[in-house]
Amino acid sequence: MRLGERVVSGHVPAAALAVGDARGPLRKEVFVGEAGHSGGGRMDAESIFFLASVTKPIFATAFMQLVEEGLVELHEPISRHLPEFTGGGRERVTAFHLLTHTSGVQDVLPELIRRTRPSGPRLTRLTIEAPLRHEPGTRWEYCSTSFYLLAEMARRLTGLAAEPLLRERLFEPLGMADTTFDPRRARRPIVPVQGIGADNRLKRFLLLRYVASIAHPGGGLFGTLDDLLHFGAALLRPAQADGRWLPIAPKTFRLMAQDHVRGLPGVAYDEERPMHHGLAWSKPTLNKDVPGGPGVVDHGGATGTRLWIDPDAELVFVYFTSRWDPDRGPELEALRGTYAALGLD
User: Fold this and answer.
1) Is 337 part of a structural domain of the chain?
2) Is the dihedral of CA 224, 228, 231, 234 positive or negative?
3) 189 preceded by cis ω (within 30°)?
4) d(CA 240, CA 294)
């Protein structure tokens, strides 16, 4: 496999790849080069990776269960549930805007997080209090901390914070045994992320303790290849239990997978361009030359993670690396190779 050659050459320090379908896992591969070993820790097909922003569609799936149950509406002002979120146009922001990154809600800057280490409740307050950057629905602008608003709405509606909400509604029913905001007591090794300045055990411990404490619903989950394959398979082939769909109804997943942004202006990879986005899912085939048809959804994370679901091909593709903000070329190459190997190109 070309990806293995990339790792041996040192272009990629380490990579883990898994492919599945609606019935579950089909194949898993792990490649670790010298640069990967130098990052410390063991890495294999059962290891736990920091999923980063792949958290978004997972949390959004649990939130959409609340929509299905009629507890919240996508197009109602979120101020109905967060009455403190008012003034300066905030009354026009809906859950739909938050999920499509068109709300105008300001992201809390990574530099502020690194410098002050705010708690989860503090991050929620900062997000609520910051002025909007633009009129809701007029522009696409990626925002992670806006998911704290979704989580706070869910907490007030269900009484459950993000971790127990996900555990009760997704992780336990779907068998995602190793997906968590806090993997410190996990049964499996945690793969350290290279390139973030946490180059010794103490720094990694302190960083992990902080990340676990804030339970970031837009970017804080850890998980395994198998867990994401289970999640993807469940979306492709949901089941009914106790009168409801698990994880969500097919029509809800189709709704999430639609292009709701439809060419609104936005910036991606430092380039201003028309954007395409679903409800918490990216629409990659509409933005660039990648395999698959218009039904594909995916989401990546800054730690080199990727979850790709192609409903037409019944394909789930999971890709992990262990480096912050990596070169995405090898990932795309592996994806194209997967389509070719399955005769889907």
Assistant:
1) no
2) negative
3) no
4) 27
In a domain, 344, yes or no: no
Rounded CA separation 305/292 (Å): 19
Burial of 6 (0-12, 13-18, 19+ CB in 10 A): buried
Would you write out the chain's pLDDT as a tens digit for each of its 345 residues?
Answer: 578 777 877 778 889 999 999 998 999 999 987 655 545 557 899 999 999 999 999 999 999 999 999 999 999 999 999 999 999 999 999 999 999 999 999 999 888 998 999 999 999 999 999 999 999 999 999 999 999 999 999 999 999 999 999 999 999 999 999 999 999 989 889 999 888 877 778 888 889 999 999 999 999 999 999 999 999 999 999 999 888 999 999 999 999 999 999 999 999 888 899 999 999 999 999 877 899 999 999 999 999 999 999 999 999 999 999 889 888 999 999 999 999 999 987
Specify if 338 maps to a domain.
no
**Straight-line distance from the first to the last Cα atom of the chain, in angstroms, rounded to the nearest whole number:** 17
Residue 138, domain member (yes or no) = yes
The CA distance from 343 to 345, in Å, is: 6
Query: CA-to-CA distance for 124 and 147, rounded, in angstroms?
Result: 9
- What is the pTM (predicted TM-score) of this model? 0.95
**Neighbour-count burial for 37-52, b at 16+ CB within 10 Å, e otherwise:** eebbeebeebbbbbbb
Q: Find the CATH number of the domain harbouring 229.
A: 3.40.710.10
Q: Which domain holds residue 193?
A: 20-29+44-327
The number of folded domains in the chain is 1
